[in-house]
Structure formats: structure tokens, C-alpha cells
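FIELD: query
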Amino acid sequence: MKRDLTAREAGLMSCHVCGQLAHIPADRAALLRCPRCRAPMHPRKPASVSTTWALIIASAVLFVPANLLPMMTTSSLLGRQQDTIMSGVVFLWQSGSWPLAAVVFFASIMVPLLKIIALAWLTVTVQRRSRRSVMQRTRLYRIVEFVGRWSMLDIYVITILVALVNFRGLATIEAGPAAIAFGAVVVLTMFAAMSFDPRLIWDPLTEPGKPAAHV
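FIELD: result
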């Protein structure tokens, strides 16, 4: 069965900034700028795989101290207490706040971890030129890109607690070193999702001499 032409095969590419379509120049080495917003245009994101791998590895390394180091330090008349993400989850669970403990555990531990794993898997399949489950992998990428921004729950909670507690003069709450590592993990995974080019998932289907696969 004859398949439709892709934009790349038709000599077209879109701007990553405004979405404007433009013709690919005959000289592939020439730098093409968007006729609308003047941003540089490329058929595929330059160094997408290597950049994504660098960001994934950096986020995986920082994920360890983000969960082992103190996320929050509380100082009061009763003493000084340091809490990690997991100790906060355990405290919420033991105090009866099971829904909140589940939300914190999922948003602060599972979401960043699953995002790192998903991005690593997508990058591996792209490097191996896999032709399987391209539609499912594209949907997974969209999910990863969407949910990544909502994994900053701990940082939001600390900010609110610092404002409320310090305002009342009950104690002093400071963000621990894990907050920096955790924030870096979230930012790096967001950049990794942005640097990954999902069009690379579909490129193996358009390789010459190979029949179209079921998607």
C-alpha cells in the first residue's frame, strides 16, 4: 500500500518557535531562518540524542541526593529536625493523611523516576532505529512532556510552609540541600524532554527499501 509523503520527503520543515513551514534549502549546510520569526530552522533538532542523554544522566545522578539528603530543616524551641522526601511521606502516612502521602510519594518520587526511565527508553529505541510501537512511543513522549512540570510539589509545599510558619513566628523552616538537587532533577528532565526530537521515532518507517510497519 502506498503511503503518504512526509514533510521531510516533500522538502519541507517547520519552525520550532512559530510552526511556520519552509522549504529545505538545496544546500543542506546552509543555515535557514524562519521567514516569519527569523529563528534558525533544522529538519531535525541538532544533536538531539546526545543532548538528551547528557541531561538524562545528569538528572539520574542528582536524583540520588534529592532523595537521600534533607529536603527541609525545621528549627524550633523543641530542637532541630531534618526531613527527607521519604520521611515526610512516612510521617504523613502515620499521621493518617494517606491521600496526601500518596500524592507526595507519586509526584515527588515516582514521577521524576518514571520520567527518567521513559526518556532513557525512548532515546535507546531511537538509537536502535526501532520500528515497533511508534504510535505508543509518541504518546508516551507526550505524556512525559506534559506531566513533568507537575513534579515540583515538594518545592511548592516548602515555600508555603516557610511563609506560613515564619509569619506566625512558631519556628524557622529552611529548604535543605535536597531541594536544590530535586529542583535540578525536574528542570533537567524538562530540558531532556524538550531536546528529544519525537520525529526521530518515525524516521525508520521512511527508510528506503523497507516496507511500512504497522503503527
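FIELD: remark
The chain has two domains: 1-43, 47-206.
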